[in-house]
Amino acid sequence: MKYAESYFTHENITWVPVSLEEILRVAGAVNLTKVEGLFSASNLQSRGKHSDDILMIGIEEVGEKLFLHFYPIEVKIGGLQTQKARVQIDQTARLFNQHLRHNGEDEFKKKFYRNFFAQLLLSNVKKLHSNGLWDDDTFNYVENLKSRFLNDGFEIGEHLEPHIGKGAVLTFRKEYPYRSSVKDGDLLLLTLLEEDAYLGITTSSEEIRRKMVEGRLDLIPENLLSHSYSSVLEEGASESKDESAELPFPPSDEDESDESEEVVEDTQNDESEKKEPENRVGDDGEDQAMDGEDGAEPPLAPAPDDVDEKVDLADIRVPIGTVRGSNANVYWEFGDKGLANRHMFTVGRSGQGKTYFIQCMLMELSKRGLSSIIIDYTDGYKKSQLEDEFKDYLGDSLEQFIVRAQKFPVNPFKRNMKMLDEDIHIPEDDSDVAERIKNVISSIYDSLGIQQLNAIYQAVIKGMQLYDEGMSLPRLGELLDEDGSGPAKTALSQMNLLIDKNPFDYQEEFDWSFLDKEKGKVFIIQLTGYSPDVQNMITEFILWDLWYYKLQHGSKNKPFPIVLDEMQRLDMSGDSPTSKILTEGRKFGWSGWFATQFMKGFASDHLSRLQNATQKIYFNPTENEVSNIASSFAHDTPSRKQWEEKLMNLSKGQCIVHGPAKGKDGELRGSIPVVVDITSLGERL
């Protein structure tokens, strides 16, 4: 109980811990264990003689009033099961209120119960003193109140509830890297590490308290009761809860309101509202598990003007934000060699902060000298839509290529080099080129049948024989027109817009080597001004060109991110470039950042590929997707329901991060879902 006592320490409140097992034992000794009474095992939710349930009784004097606070705590080690604990604590709090609080009913019985707890309290105070756990001053203070306790001269306090709720679940999580304290409705969720439970045995309460106050156990010091609660109460505060008390905790799922709209995007341009980064206190030479630091921060690369300084890939940890209710930072362990891949899959309804978040991630990698590509077929990454902090930081390192104005230097009919083995490459033949063109057009126009697609295939074969790499979309149109067959005419009628727009510069070849040469660059291929089908075609051919470039020049030790928003628009069939990026791309350096508003539109095999991304980010999703997402976090029904609630109540600028995380020992652990407040661009500068 050292952690609970340290968390709830207050200069005007003296806490006395009592085990619920002891309450049952003493009550049984005096024949108070009625089946429907306050002291039944079912009512107090005891699970036997080894129950971990604790009742904290707080003694507080305010003016001439004496308050007793009854605060049940459920202690858990290992997993996370708060739904049952919520019911238990709510019932326990209701029973204490029903049987101990004066309201004009059953007063004799209530006085009897109140006297029982007063004597139990005094008995435990003597034990604490005799065992050397309390000093003489604390013991004498409570002893001087003895007559008031035994003569029913106290009130049941409820005014702490806005600060710490009706009760707490103290969980020592197994294989979990984050500590946090979150007030969730009437329940305080206090999460520590399993290692803390063992280290707490040999660590003094004073040391634990000191670390909490200094913010070195990840817990936010302002959330401690000593910071959040002032005991100077208005007269009559005991009669009603202080509804105006400011909650220092992150708002609970039930308390979220439309005021949360005042978040990430809307606040970033107001300098007066920017939060300065926390100054974390180090803890050299002390136990790692008792320290909030996850090890030294990797050195940040300088701003783009100076970004030539080398940053080791293994040192790249991309900060995402802080755990809700904690100072603990959550990272994308981008450079860790233990990652299966460096892909990221982001899901969430429109307006929840996905684009803002991706800008944050791009800026972090730019700091570390990594260049990135955005293919923008949604208009979401036009310069006019980007955040000022993002543009100002990148400066000349942010480049936009507007295809509508310049045409993109890619030849879809180019004979790329196929890799047969790591050192064996051969050029594509005519059928390879024709198959690729046919598949891209098929993905754009799903109304085209086998005969129409075959006509396109044959026309490309003929064009390659006639023009070789001088083949083009206009020449494909001419060959289909010359064919004159019904399928060829139908195919041409579908493709006329693509052919007329002809968005490619066939004579030039784009130099993708800038990805390695230019450090910290963000290159936007802007497809605004084209219809969706033309945008999709351009995107697919650019991806193919880049895929073949990386086959020859890519390396898993030279990662580059590519942002593909609204993924449902792209081809994800087995032989598409997007599919290849997801399944084979890591060894060639691909870090695909895939985003979508919803997952329902994806075929099951396509969704499975996306779910293979090691880093998954979930913003507030559409209602019909909540259950599916929650089931990926937990398999048992109570935990799944809990995650469903968290998903539905995510605020703008909040997300659930589901990816590998490093423990306090620096070792990479499996994917762990955690609610995160995204760090703003302003705080990253």
TrEMBL record:
Residues 232-310 are annotated as: Disordered. Residues 319-543 form the Helicase HerA central domain. Residues 252-270, 284-296 have a biased composition (Acidic residues). SUPFAM superfamilies: P-loop containing nucleoside triphosphate hydrolases. InterPro entries: HerA_central, P-loop_NTPase, T4SS_component. Residues 271-283 have a biased composition (Basic and acidic residues). PANTHER family: AAA+ ATPASE DOMAIN-CONTAINING PROTEIN, UNCHARACTERIZED PROTEIN YJGR-RELATED. This is DUF87 domain-containing protein. It comes from Halobacillus locisalis. The lineage of its organism: Bacteria, Bacillati, Bacillota, Bacilli, Bacillales.
